[in-house]
Amino acid sequence: MACPGAVSLSVSKAVLTFSKSIVVDVSETPGLPDKIKTAYRTGGASVPIVILCDPGLTQTFGRFDHPGMESQKYDAIFKEAREKIQKSLKDGTFSKGGKAPVVVKVEGTKIESWKSAAGTAIEAKLIGIEDDSVYLFQTKDGKSIRATAAQLDKASVAKARKLAKIKP
Amino acid sequence: MKIFLVLSFATSLAGAFSIPKGSFNLGQLETAQKKAAADDQPLAFVIVNKNATPT
Prior knowledge:
The complex is a heterodimer of chains A (168) and B (55).
Chain A: H1 4-14, E1 20-25, H2 34-41, E2 49-53, E3 60-64, H3 66-69, H4 74-77, H5 79-91, E4 103-105, E5 112-115, E6 121-130, E7 134-139, E8 144-148, H6 154-163
Antiparallel strand pairs in A: 2-3, 4-6, 5-6, 6-7, 7-8
Chain B: H1 2-14, H2 29-38, E1 43-48
């Protein structure tokens, strides 16, 4: 019997062989795209949970939780999902995205201190909020930083939304 | 006693879950989408407890 930690490690490496993997901590799940959030909330809650979808986030090809991956035989576990992916690529339903994100631009802001949920601080100016969920910053030296609400502390999220004139 | 100390140290070094090289985090979703689209690959959202220690 493999523990969740061991399965998390092995599956996060296994999916890299056929996909682009986004590793998300359970505390960050409120920041997931809606379709993935719905899939996450549907079914068993034992992490690790793997959700396969197309880059355009229009369809999911499979959802797997810890009990289903405990054997760690990933060739067999992901076989059906990988077949669905190939079929989708063939029949042209595999969405590659392309929908422009909706960015609320924030102008005239100054460099100030922002805090992460972990308590670390960055000095940057808020330049926008993308799709109501990703906060865009620019540091003094022009470096871009993207952070989800889950990655920022509550006070910083509230301050950013106030600056962008978006409902809290 | 020495063995116990060595084991404790090794366990603490093992630490929490570490993200494999090549993976993205949620803030890099857009980049991951673009790369997946360019390579005709799906996205895999791997939801984990990053504080879990593999045993």
